[in-house]
Amino acid sequence: MADLILTPNIDHADDFYADLLATHEGLEQAESDALNARLVLVLANHIGDNDILKQALNAAALKE
Amino acid sequence: MNKIFETPIYAYTPSPDQTAPAPVRHKVIVVGAGPVGLAAAIDLAQQGVEVVVLDENDKVSFGSRAICFAKRPLEILDRLGCGQAMVDKGVVWNLGKVFFDDRKIYDFNLLPEDGHKRPAFINLQQYYFEQFLVERVRELQAEGAPIEIRGRNKVEAVGTHPDHVRLEVETPEGSYTIEADWVIACDGAGSPMRSMLGKDFVGRVFEDNFLIADVIMDADFPTERWFWFDPPFNKGQSALLHKQPDGVWRIDLQLGWDIDKEREKRPENVIPRLKAMLGEDVQFELEWVSIYTFQCRRMEQFRHGRVIFAGDSAHQVSPFGARGANSGLQDTDNLCWKLKMVMDGTAPESLLDSYDIERVQGADENILNSTRSTDFITPKSQMSRLLRDAVLDLSERYEFTRPLVNSGRLSLPCTHDGSPLNSADALDGPARTRPGSPCPDAPLGDEFLLSKLSGEFTLLTIDADAPDEIEVDGVTVKRLALSVKDDPTMELKRRYLGDATGAVYLIRPDQHVAARRDHYEENAIRHAVLRATGKE
Question: Are B319 and B410 in contact (CB under 8 A)?
Fold first, then answer.
């Protein structure tokens, strides 16, 4: 079983974070929430592997 | 003109049992003449088992009710001698459209797999379905088969005994008592039989109401399934439009929980809703309207001594995915050969426990699937609605989220992995035909594989040697010898051999695989037959 990467893995972390904030800029709360929901689905599909996704859900839930 | 569901088709006639000096004992009594009860009775009568069907009514079901019949039940009906009538009358469709708010977000083609005699499913009103089953009963009676339907015979009390069941039956001419070696209770979700025996029926009630309407219209809507999430004409809810035979369209409108059911059902309230959906100028006539609330639940056990539950009396699911009548037919398909063997003394009574194990598995699978559909269609929290809407919004633009859109996962037969009747897989073959699987059909020139299975245990050999017939402890197994050359399309090879060069399959009377090997080995096959009949 492949392991979820939980060590730093984004090439340019500050750039990514700035892009994330920029994507939400000017949106109402409801629009931002919807965008986040879509983002989760886009990323989940890119990962694909159910084992990794399960580990990601657990990590996000701050379990273990 | 009377509709077929307004005319008695098994009218009450007095039976000599009602005036017999002592209760008459029958082999099997089926309680309920719905799709499941009638299928059970036909199955048993075809095998020569004497059977009496009792029904409190004398007509087919009122309104369309169950309307989608899937491939596996159609294959079962072929074995029961009435599949063709259903398919000839039914509507076959492959295209679906999904709408969200005021826009179509995508359409899909089911692209059913080739090389099957029967389509993925048909739409057919339940009243036709029952009518064809009753016609099949009449045909069997004309041939002298021991089958009888008693209309307006309502079971009022049940007494269970170690070797029989006693029923008190109410008729228009008073009540009488009859007995049976076995009783199959197919008396629906509200099962009086279940209540009379004091058995549990636990699960989840969904807080929602659906208005279902049959409308007759000439409009040239295509033969497609249209599903709306949150449409302008039913804000915050869902809607479904589906075609049935005779220009009848089935419409399901979700209404929410806090409504006045009687008020919503009145034509003056229904018609404006339908006009908003179909368009102001579309001419239609309302044939039937009903409101339902559904539940997902099952009995803990389907067999209680000599009373065996099948269909909605044993398990109930949400309507999404057409898993009600479809799974009920798989119940009786699973049960009847086992009951026949137990009655004949060729299998121990414990074989019936495998009915419980296998069909509880089927019910759990159906409940899981239909609960998931329900959770998608009617999100239960703000976050689940947010995620659901995210899936739909993305689906308009990208393909990747479309598999997550869940407006009902179509009923597929259960593979009984882990069933006590299976023998260990001894073929490096395709996963879809592993032990426990329902046999997939395959073309054989002008014919099809499933039509060649006899309804008894069969030894299917594909490019493999075996005796033409073997006898194992009172059970006869006949060989069906085939070659991959019998199917130029190579589907037989793809579905049953994979990379193997030959195979031997032991197939149960209900067309499920009990065992498979790469070649015939007498000892192994004998053990597999013993195991499949509950003797090992």
Answer: no
How many angstroms separate the CA atoms of B218 and B220, rounded? Answer: 6
A64, part of any domain: yes
Return d(Cα B88, Cα B84) in angstroms, integer.
6
Sign of CA dihedral B273, B278, B282, B283: negative
Residues of chain B in contact with residue A40, where contact means CB-CB under 8 angstroms, are 387, 390
ipTM: 0.97
Task: Please state at what angle helix A29-47 crosses helix B382-397, rounded to 10 degrees.
Answer: 60
For residues B30-51, give the mean pLDDT. Answer: 98
Distance CA(B294)–CA(B207), nearest Å, equals 8
Which residue, among B297, B262, B335, has the nearest Cα to B43 in the 3D structure?
B335
Q: What is the DSSP letter of B471?
A: E
Residue B71 tokens read as 């491939």
Candidates A36, A45, A46, A57: best to mutate against B (most CBs of B within 10 A) is A45
pLDDT tens for B449-490 read 999 998 999 999 999 999 999 999 999 999 999 999 999 999
Domains of chain B (ranges; CATH) run 4-13+23-91+119-202+296-367 (3.50.50.60), 207-293 (3.30.9.10), 431-532 (3.40.30.120)
Cβ–Cβ below 8 Å for A41 and B394: yes
* A36 assigned to some structural domain: yes
Is residue A49 in a domain?
yes
Domain-located, residue A46: yes
Model confidence band, residue B94 (pLDDT cutoffs 50, 70, 90): confident
Answer whether residue B213 shows pLDDT above 50.
Answer: yes
Q: Which residues from A are below 8 Å from B400, CB to CB? A: 42, 45
**pLDDT reading at B393 higher than 90:** yes
Q: How far is the C-alpha of B465 from the C-alpha of B307, rounded, in Å? A: 42
Of the pLDDT bands very low, low, confident and very high (cuts 50, 70, 90), residue B2 is low
pLDDT above 70: percentage of residues in chain B? 100
Contacts of A27 in chain B (CB under 8 A): none
B494-528 pLDDT, tens digit per residue, is 999 999 999 999 999 999 999 999 999 999 999 99
| Owning domain of residue A39 | 28-64
* A40 reaches B (C-beta below 8 A): yes
